[in-house]
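Notes to self after the call with IL:
- keep both proteins in one doc
- input above output, always
- annotate only the second one for now

Protein 1:
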Amino acid sequence: MEGADRKVKRICVITTCRSDYGYLYFLMKDIELSPKLQLQIILPINHHNLDSILSEFDCTYITTEVKSIRDYGHFYSECLKTISDIKPDMVICLGDRWEMLAAATAALLLNISIAHLHGGETTTGAFDDEIRNSITQMASYHFTATEQYGLHVMDMMSDKSLYYQNVKKSKIYNVGSTGLDWLTRTRLLSKHELQKRVAVDLNEPFIVACFNPVTKELPKTEYQIGQFYDALDKLGGQIVYIKPNSDPCSNIIYKTVENNTKWWMVDNLDHLTYLSLLQYTELMVGNSSSGIIESPSFNIPSINAGNRQNGRIKADNTFTCPCETEAILSTIDRAREWNGLIGKCDNPYGDGKSTERIIKILEEI
């Protein structure tokens, strides 16, 4: 059925890698289950979770490999072709990855409505801000993680020009972060179950670490990962080290850490295993957004090293420090003291019911 007679709305979700898949998983599942919605998926063929996506979802359209920013044009071209072929009513993009910008641009030029998750956030140390805000400007629907981020989006959508206000009638909904839905909709692995999947002794203290390039400070990448590496090396003990994403200069980080045989090096973890690790870890350290968004729900201290995540709303469990060896070590000491004194930590990013809210909105649009 075409036009007004077609009641089922085709919703195309873009997922590019491990960093967004966990946030989009339950949204895709619930779109597929909704009698009012039809799920479509676009992803690169080298997606970290390709096999599980192919086995779980019916409507999957695969594009080219996307390994670095040099593949931006290829991904844009493939999204343009695929979106044109499958004709969605809406494209859903999450966050601030450069691949998402390519997909959003394709949807915009095809006059397809865009819904943006996690807009209005700030990360002044990375070019993510410019990418995220560009997608926000393209989008007609905004699902923000906090009320403050919703106000940021509203500011971006506001203009004294009456003409602009009439043209840009965006809808902004504060729904929380979909990444927390795992904590209300799944049972995390027990220590016995998790031990079969990991190479650290869960009965002994361990730390989860991840350091990504600070994309507005790329000339400093070698120095920064050197300082970060030295801090972990001096710290000793068990380290679960999650390798970086495909941002520029990721290869420098890979080369620095790849030969360390004392740490458990991980290219990719499924989201259930990753979150299950967080319930047993002593603390998190690095510059991943997960150390800010998910960690408060586990009441574990999180050390945010350097400037990559500057500007994000942070809970009481997050400790920010310069990316310097001694600063990281002293901040870890302070975080361990906090861990022994504080009980439950409030998470500003929601209650784990975000997908439920988004589905209701999508069905009613």
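Protein 2 (the one to annotate):
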Amino acid sequence: MRCTASRPCALDIPSVTSYEVYGIRIASDVVLPELAPNSRPCVDARATLLVRLNVERRIEFDPNAIFLRTDDPDGSEWLVCARSIGGYLLRFAGLADFFVNQAGDVIECCGVDDKTSPETLRHLLLDAVVSRVLDLKGFETIHATAVSIDGTACAFLGPTGAGKSTLAANLALAGASLLGDDCLVLSLTDTVLLTPGYAGARLWDDSFDALSVDSSRSEQVADGNRKRRVPELGRGFTSEPQRLKRIYRLVRGEDDDAEQIRTPALEDMSPGESFIELAAASYRFNPTDRVRNLHKFAFFEKLVAMAPIRRLIVPNDFAMLPAVRNLILGDLARESSKL
């Protein structure tokens, strides 16, 4: 890591560019090409985040202060989060260190491995650090993909490889607007509101051919990441909050169930099942924070009552994407007719 002496986090950023993402304003000392510049004032007092990616200093922490460890699928360490003087350290093994101040107002990249590319650093910032800092600041966030259809939104939950991005891209190519492909911010009033993330889907290699998308117009997400970002799928993106009409939990058809493989299907989920899915998909900055957990669980209880989740059985066949899309559109149309 390229790091120097330890010192408290500074709040001043001499030269910044302002962006809007996840309903907050980010002021950054480096250009973030994934985001659209924005100069609108922020209404929410929580909604300003200062980012510095050109900081050279060393942040130390007590091993006893670690409150989260996350591993890669192969078992190797990926992320360690720990309390530090004046805030928190997020260490991505072999890639970069990020310092977050106590209030979650400032993010500083305070150590970068020589082999970490700028694309990887921005990916970590936007898709791993900011999403967690939103939770620290009191926003309710989930790991999901969403689109807007005729002015209302639907979201897709599911593990990596379930097909969330491919399905959202298929809907976008048919006229829907992509609202985010990783982190979504939710809020409750008399309805459920979804605040979009940023434009551009991220697709696996096999999805490009299936969707007839030109891979040469895609961009690298990060070193070692087999997904590629497709900016053109972000056409029509809006940062305005959308009413969330339905949440779908994607489930791939099992090989031993021929009917599920051939035909997409929708199944109702119980409130308990829906709650578990939301809890599993939520971003939690500090899973050991009991007060924050209780607040989040109360939020999910209300959310489940207002927007029940449906299980969406998706065949393991790209040729069935139009059928899956039509099933979703029909379900949303029936939901609208109830209002």
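Annotation: Confidence is low (pLDDT under 50) at residues 1-14. Residues 118-136 form the longest helix (19 residues).
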